[in-house]
Amino acid sequence: MERQLGLFCLGVGIQTHGPGPAPERALGCYAFVWLREGEGHLLHGAERQLYEVRAPALLTLFPGLLHGYRPSTRWQQVWTLFGGPATEALATLGHLDPSRPVRQYADARPVERAFTRLLRVSTERDVVQLTAALYDVIALAAPQHEDSLVQRLAALACTPMSIQDYATQLGLTVSDLRAAVRRATGSTPQELVLNTRLSSAKVLLAEEDLSVAAVARRVGYDDPAYFSRLFTARAGMSPVAFRRFGSLSGPISSLRRRRDRLSDV
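Predicted structure:
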């Protein structure tokens, strides 16, 4: 019956690993491992690549691909094994991607709820409920669309944070964030953040009557002098000169805006 539904669950459980390497092996099916507690590395693939893992994190294991756990602390995890003809379509759609076996989460609650439900319905002998619960987990494991990811990073750019903090906010590792931004823009997260901040600064300088220091703070820089040097190096003129001569709308439009403000009053 489960095969006819296209997706079947072969098992669900809770497991604990102590620090130190676990035996390496390859499965004959897919698996999800939801790491609730702990950190370390996942060894994955024929090239034995090591991926950094820090709870909360979801590991995806693939049939025929070598994997091994390398906990540096105690690991507490929930696992499920699954297969079926639907997995081929899910892989084609990007939901099961062997190039991304680890996904970090800033907000673990949706995934934790999905695995809690999967554990519960696995004891109820309801095939449809079990398949539905498994699909919920698969949906949460899907890689984020890179264009959307770039937009989300740009929305955070004016909040002063490290690249590690940006990655955490987006539910990714730093390496995954770098790879996603590179694929989407050909650039780095640092360059995307910088360009977004400077673009925002130009708009504020052109459209708002704010001091340079206020503009600097708005776009994520507490040091106005540093912001001015950075802006000058990138824009070819100082923030003051940009406002006066090189604003997005030009000096004539700037005068028109001042006239419009007076007429509004």
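Summary: The chain has a mean pLDDT of 86.
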